[in-house]
């Protein structure tokens, strides 16, 4: 079997599990600076699945994220776990991207920066946007099959992949031709911890966006270009690509490429208001369910 080229799409997200009082601004938008940024949990499962494929069949794991310069931290975590190559898509022109524009940028990055890919792995869903749209939309744009809600790879060869995927009340086994895109759920595996040796190496990794700040720490280099060469030669240079580097049409990314409009944001507090007693009989439950359906609660 040939070595597989894999791509993992990862997103850095605010840690919505540790919400404090400042998490929401007065206008109802998320105050990202008040929440610690973490690796989107199901993207860790996607990365783990790719690393396991690499160990079993051989291949390379390329990780791509689109985000602000600070998203480099998520990429470093991917390196600490065993990723081979990491790339950051960062450009002011990407800001304001909805899921459609995000998937367009990710598709452009995959086709322009990773040649002959076999499998693209995504998390099922990001814990902040929560739409679960980016994976399927990216598959659509790449014009490849999508296998969603994947919990296990059953079989894999050069040409085909067979996976187990979750469906309502159970699971099913499906097969697709490669290349294909998988969205991976949190029940798929237990993501591995950082590998200490890799952490010691890659904690010094930096992108071109960091080099100016780092210059004073490396007085032996005359200029940024020389410092960049040094980082490249040590395998510690993180690639950053902008809109032109991935040949993206400015009309398809950022605000211009985003048809979604946020009309109103509301903070909803759920309060208990009274209760209703129902007969603990089949009939009582049936009537109650009918009531819930009628008033659209269910
Ligand atoms: C009108 C509008 C404007 C927006 N403006 C902004 C903005 O200015 N700044 C901003 O940060 N967000 C903005 N967003 C949010 C942005 O659209 C989403 O964060 C993004 O498209 C991902 O969607 P999601 O979080 O629902 O991911 P999901 O679809 O739930 O994610 C599924 C999987 O796709 C992959 N994935 C998702 N996003 C990325 C990514 N960025 N890089 C790599 N892989 C990824 C991951 O594998 C993830 O597990 C905006 C959204 C809308 C609707």
Write the layout of secondary structure elements.
Elements: E1 4-9, E2 12-14, E3 37-39, H1 41-57, E4 59-66, H2 72-81, E5 85-89, H3 99-113, E6 119-123, H4 134-142, E7 146-156, E8 160-167, E9 170-177, E10 180-184, H5 196-202, E11 206-207, H6 208-214, H7 224-233, E12 237-241, H8 282-294
Parallel strand pairs: 1-4, 1-6, 4-5, 5-12, 6-10, 7-10, 11-12
Antiparallel strand pairs: 2-3, 7-8, 8-9
Helix pairs in contact: 2-5, 3-4
Bound molecules: flavin-adenine dinucleotide.
Quick overview:
With 298 residues, the chain is of the alpha/beta class.
Overview of the molecule:
With 298 residues, the chain is of the alpha/beta class. The protein has eight helices and twelve strands. It has helices spanning 41-57, 72-81, 99-113, 134-142, 196-202, 208-214, 224-233, 282-294; strands at residues 4-9, 12-14, 37-39, 59-66, 85-89, 119-123, 146-156, 160-167, 170-177, 180-184, 206-207, 237-241. A hairpin with a 2-residue loop joins β8 and β9 (170-177). The N and C termini lie far apart (49 Å). The model has no long low-confidence stretch (mean pLDDT 92). Bound molecules: flavin-adenine dinucleotide. Residues 9-11, 40, 42-43, 46, 64-67, 95-99, 102, 106, 122-123, 125-126, 128-135, 258, 260, 262 line the site of flavin-adenine dinucleotide (FAD).
Keywords:
single chain; 298 residues; alpha/beta; Rossmann fold; 10-stranded mixed sheet; two-stranded antiparallel sheet; binds flavin-adenine dinucleotide
